[in-house]
Design a protein that fits this description.
Elements (H helix, E strand, L loop, with lengths): L11 H7 L4 E6 L6 H8 L2 E2 L13 E6 L4 H5 L10 E5 L4 H8 L4 E2 L9 E2 L5 H10 L2 H7 L5 E5 L23 E4 L17 H26 L5 H14 L8 H14 L3 H4 L1 H7 L6 H21 L11
Antiparallel strand pairs: 1-3, 1-4, 2-3, 4-7, 5-6, 7-8
Length: 316
Amino acid sequence: MVLAAGAGPVSSADILKDAGAPLWTIIDGASCPEMPQLVHDNGGVCLYRADTPEDAPHAPWLIPVLPDTPIADDLDVLGNIEHWGIVFASDASERELRNHFRKFTMLWTPADEHAPVYFRFYDPRVLGDAMQALDADHLAHLLAPVLRLWVPVSPLLGGWTGLTPLAAPDVFRGHFLELAMPEGPAPAHPKAFSVLEAAYAEMTRLHGVRSRRKLARDLHTRFPNAPEQVVMTCAQLAPEKAPAYGLQSLKHIGYFADAMMVFGPEFDTREAEAAAILNRAEPVSLTKATALRDWFEQARAAKRARGKTVAPGALA
């Protein structure tokens, strides 16, 4: 279970009133352009080796959240959809928290036993995946100094939020969800934080699920009048079908999904010109993707000129 029992959306003011311990936030500089100003206004320390935000503008920064300080209000106006960081309650000191969380900025996975990868646990999306994929011992180790934990609500976190990925911004802006804490004390672990094959496979699968939610939201932005069922169907099918034609990147899969939205899920076999493009033996996927995009724009314009709707009807 990801959410704390009985958890519902709350504001930062609610968290301040009910935290029960000093509050902290870890702000992800890579996702929060306001991070340098937040650090200058409120203090804080970097989880990497840096003394100022300008030294590490894309790094995570640990910042205290105190009543009557600028950040107490700022947390409600940061863009949740940007997944700027996490908020937690802890009795540990700043030094203790920094020393602890620095151990988890890298993760050893079965993908490469010789080199770890960055583990952005302070990104609510990654943390949500970890809460589902890691076992209780790993979670207890990661969150050992944390008493309570909140993330800004976003429809792109996953289905566990209860939000459709097409939810309007006003539904979640300025609100947080409390996550369930692992039970029991943190076990002894080696210095390096690593995950086993099953957990890594599950995190990979959950990342794919979130990618489809992101694609659905992007499609909804480009086709705001399309029925939700159509959007969700295209977002599910495009990542399954496009790679068969060598279209692997998110951008190129997006081109494929756009064509599905306008010309139906079988456009790749039903539209002769599109099929010819997709079945080329192109050595570079960019060439094929660009040709598909050009075909799509021209075919959609021709469809409009004929007075036919560009809203997807083939999926209805």
